[in-house]
Amino acid sequence: xxxxxxxxxxxxxxxxxxxxxxxxxxxxxxxxxxxxxxxxxxxxxxxxxxxxxxxxxxxxxxxxxxxxxxxxxxxxxxxxxxxxxxxxxxxxxxxxxxxxxxxxxxxxxxxxxxxxxxxxxxxxxxxxxxxxxxxxxxxxxxxxxxxxxxxxxxxxxxxxxxxxxxxxxxxxxxxxxxxxxxxxxxxxxxxxxxxxxxxxxxxxxxxxxxxxxxxxxxxxxxxxxxxxxxxxxxxxxxxxxxxxxxxxxxxxxxxxxxxxxxxxxx
Length: 266
What we know:
The chain has 11 helices and 9 strands. The protein has helices at about 5-30, 35, 40-60, 70-95, 110-115, 120-125, 145-155, 175-180, 185, 190-205, 240-245; strands at about 95-105, 105-110, 135-140, 165-170, 210-215, 220-230, 235-240, 250-255, 260-265. The strands form 2 sheets. A 7-stranded mixed β-sheet has the order 4-3-1-2-5-6-7. A two-stranded antiparallel sheet has the order 8-9.
């Protein structure tokens, strides 16, 4: 057998493994829109590097028909590849977003390992919904907010991890989410690139009539989600930074003369 044939066989086997893993990554572990916001591409790069590059190219380098110790070399390559791939898959699985939690006025995708550290298992999550990842509403009472915030700072624990305030998303929150919706049409008026993204979301039919534009703070960036208030779920995202939108809003201030005037914070 030639070196290139051995490489082709190894690559073909690795490709089959990659395609199986790709299904789990795209459909089960990092479904859209979380694939593009929470490390889906990073996971793909790790798997490609280990599975499609490392193993087959090591075979290409060391393979020589009739070489003494060839079987041992190929066994070690397969072992190294399997160990590296297992590590990559295990980390990708643990870091998959298991829940998207709405706290204050934005969504936060939370990885499975972080929820597990709080004693929140997959079984416990299922009481909040059947979709994956599960969308949860964190209902911190207004009269307890200062207390919970102080506790959060003291314990160095994000507000979205206080699971005693978790609630299943329902029509009860529709009015709250509608009131929190960003007024993007006015915001993108003089921003050609952002306006194109906003109009595209409308033209594709993704955005329905009863929707809210809400912030999502992922591990990699801030994005704007399109939230369907009829079905109470995220249906798409727009690559518009909600933090920039917040800074750009008009606010009313009282000047030194006691007069009220409107300014833009950015």
